[in-house]
Amino acid sequence: MSKVLLTGGTGFIGSHTAVELLEQGHEVVIADDLSNSSRDVVNRIEQITGKRPVFYELDVADRKGLAKLFAEQDIEAVIHFAGFKAVGESVVKPLMYYRNNLDTSLTLLETMAEYGCRRIIFSSSSTVYGALSPCPFREDSPVGGCSNPYGWTKFMIEKILQDAARADEQLSVVLLRYFNPVGAHESGLIGEKPGGIPNNLMPYITQVAAGIRDHLNVFGDDYETPDGTGVRDYIHVVDLAKGHVAALGYAETHTGTEIFNLGTGKGTSVMEMIRAFEKANGLQIPYVIAPRRPGDLAYSYAETKKAESVLHWKAEKTIEDMCRDAWRFEKGML
Ligand code: WQD
User: Fold this and answer.
1) How far apart, in whole angstroms, are the C-alpha atoms of residue 52 and residue 85?
2) Catalytic (active site) residue 250
3) Strands 234-236 and 119-125
4) Nearest CA among 145, 98, 97, 102 for reference residue 300
5) Which of 173, 170, 152, 169 is closest to 161 using CA atoms?
6) Could you report the per-residue pLDDT of 110-136, keeping only the tens digit for each?
7) Does the bond joining 294 to the residue before it have cis omega, within 30 degrees of 0?
8) N or C: which end of the chain has fewer CB within 10 A?
9) Pick the residue with more confidence: 145 or 287?
10) How far is it, in rounded angstroms, from Cα 218 to Cα 227?
11) If pLDDT is split at 50, 70 and 90, which confidence band does 172 have?
């Protein structure tokens, strides 16, 4: 069992990972500046697991604050979730995205080196595959060609981590490329809470269901896909969180860099998702067909064999589970 630091640990994916780690007997320390989450998430993690993670309200780019954390806690491994993640905002404020996402990662790596911590798991994204290769994306498919600064920050941090592992043979780096994480913990206590207008499909659907928005805009119905709408590999956030527990086990026994896709390998279109949500929850989702959103691909889905054979991890939850759990969490917030 390890003592693990989760940067961004009160966020959507971080909080679910904290729950899975605590349930497997790991110790969890969270560092989060609460810029896109709330302190109450720590209470909720405790409510679910019966164990309270240690919490530091901290910007990971704050070198002194981070050093204090490492001096006080005997951190054995880090899962680095902290970062800005709104694609559209990154186009409008690119420097803010590069500064924040790169600064936090560099400060973290330098501080880890100072304190002899040599295991890091990084929250990367399928977005690094860009438009360069056909689906399914494999871990050795070409990367780059990202359509926005957010994606490039993930690409650059992957590169920084790979170079750091090349230079330090004791360093263990695991890059996890997430596909489209959705859903929520089945307790309804933690989930995705976007500030303002949601960028992503599932939180937008749940807000339409809740009456917060009157309809969903379907961004394009003229793609080269079976029903013309975009196809994505949606993965339940609890499955994704379990993937991190598996990656942590892998990092304990391997050095160098290893990359894993975390997806289901199955594509679902926007229209299929609307219908699945309606069926799972007995609701109607009004929608209109709108123009394509710039930068969107027709298809994005994973090749999942590597995570299955090396991490012995596989996503298990269905689209129905994702729709039901996302709605349960949204209802709990009303
Ligand atoms: C899914 C599908 C849209 C909203 C992005 C980032 C990626 C990752 C996850 C996170 C697409 C369509 C969406 C809406 C719609 N980053 N859609 N109406 O674009 O696959 O991935 O989020 O931190 O890096 O690029 O996810 O949920 O935005 O879109 O029709 O209101 O739903 O066009 O086909 P995407 P998404």
Assistant:
1) 27
2) no
3) unpaired
4) 145
5) 173
6) 999 999 999 999 999 999 998 888 999
7) no
8) C
9) 287
10) 12
11) very high
What was the pLDDT predicted at 334?
Answer: 75
At 86, list the tokens: 């709104």
Report the SS3 class of residue 5.
strand
**225 in Cβ contact with 129 (< 8 Å):** no
132 in Cβ contact with 142 (< 8 Å):
yes
Which atom of ligand 1 is nearest to 198's Cα? Answer: 31
If you search the block for the tokens 């263990």, which residue do you land on?
172
Contact 188, 273 (CB under 8 A): no
Q: Which atom of ligand 1 is nearest to the CA of 86?
A: 23
CA 184 from centroid of its chain's CA atoms: 12
- Residues 68-114: pLDDT tens digits? 999 999 999 999 999 999 999 999 999 999 999 999 999 999 999 99
* 105: its two tokens: 């990662």
Residue 132 is predicted with a pLDDT of 85
Tokens 């859903």 appear where? 183
| 286: amino acid identity, one letter | P
What are the structure tokens assigned to 316, written together?
A: 């298990």
Instruction: State what percent of residues in the chain have pLDDT above 90.
Output: 96
Query: Counting Cβ atoms within 10 Å, is residue 238 exposed (0-12), middle (13-18) or buried (19+)?
Result: buried
**Eight-state DSSP code of residue 133:** S
Query: What are the tens digits of pLDDT across the range 136-163?
Result: 999 999 999 999 999 999 999 999 999 9
Q: What is the 3-state secondary structure (H, E, C) of 41-91?
A: HHHHHHHHHCCCCEEEECCCCCHHHHHHHHHHCCCCEEEECCCCCCHHHHH
Tell me the average pLDDT across 233-238: 98
Crossing angle for the helix pair 270-281 and 201-209, to the nearest 10 degrees: 40
* Token pair for 238: 């609890």
Distance 328 CA to ligand 1 centre (A): 21
Please tell me which residue in 56, 97, 129, 150 is annotated as part of the active site.
150
Alpha carbon of 187 to ligand 1 centroid (Å): 25
CA angle 78, 238, 283 (to 5 degrees): 145
